[in-house]
Specification:
The complex is a heterodimer of chains A (114) and B (115). Chain A is 0% helix and 54% strand. With 114 residues, chain A is mostly beta strands. In chain B, strands 2, 5, 6, 10, 11 and 12 form a 6-stranded mixed beta sheet that branches. A 4-stranded antiparallel beta sheet of chain B has the order 3-9-8-7, with no helix packed on it. Chain B is globular. Classes of the chains: A mainly beta (114), B mainly beta (115).
Amino acid sequence: DAGVIQSPRHEVTEMGQEVTLRCKPISGHNSLFWYRQTMMRGLELLIYFNNNVPIDDSGMPEDRFSAKMPNASFSTLKIQPSEPRDSAVYFCASSFSGYQETQYFGPGTRLLVL
Amino acid sequence: AQSVTQPDIHITVSEGASLELRCNYSYGATPYLFWYVQSPGQGLQLLLKYFSGDTLVQGIKGFEAEFKRSQSSFNLRKPSVHWSDAAEYFCAVGERPGGYNKLIFGAGTRLAVHP
């Protein structure tokens, strides 16, 4: 089975540019999560979708960040404009929501904003 | 607020030695608990999870963890470490604010294995 797929794996951009990260969840999963990992803050949840609908976006740092899930097999996380402090590893995870749901993580996108 | 503490930032063990990684959580109800492992440049892989029932949980790669409610702990153990176990290990608690598992992660423990 294919796991969670993320692209690109690495992204280097300059401050002020728009960055789009992509995620394809595991087929059949109906929940999708975006996380950010930094040395200072560790792993933190940015946003959670259930059945393509954003349920909890309380972790989205500011208006420069936006996320969409147009269908069950695709999600994007966009940063516009990007800033150096956005440099981090961004993970997408998916699960089948339920009593004992377990999240499965993608390989991550390592973002460097210069 | 829920929280997870992993007291050890770095641990070094010799190959073949036993391993215990500590995890303490703060949670008001019965917690859902997880251990994930992250190899360099990789995503997080689930090692094991506890939802209910037997407090000793077996996972992949020979790992096990024991839930101790009285100590608010969920320590990860392995009887004999292999060089390939060198990685970063994350403990997480799942709180359910709206019917889904919102994972709260610890800061991680980086494991080094000496040959």
